[in-house]
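ingest -> validate -> predict -> emit
validate: passed (alphabet ok, no gaps, 118 aa)
predict: started
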Amino acid sequence: MKELLAFCGLDCEQCDAYIATANNDDALREKTAKAWSELYNSPIKPEHINCEGCRADGVKLIYCEKYCEIRQCALKKNMNNCGECQELEECKTVGAIIENNPDALKNLKACATVHGQT
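emit:
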């Protein structure tokens, strides 16, 4: 399974926070902080934009580390990601991600197939 696939099925390698961290790109941190502050109506600063991936060891965005219900649920259930969960299709917790990003569902289903859970 791809190490940089988040619990929700999003590809961490496509995330601006991951890219900024991997490349130590302060300009991208600045741009991402500004965009996310507006999008989430929350004061996000460039120094908050550091993440090595949802499931990887290392630094994570504070939201992902402490508040993401999807991540907390998967950790509690001791799952690599939501693709291993029998409730994936009807889960309201991961539902918003899947609804807004069809690739996330494809990624999770691919993981389930690899683990013989289809």
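The chain has one domain: 12-114.
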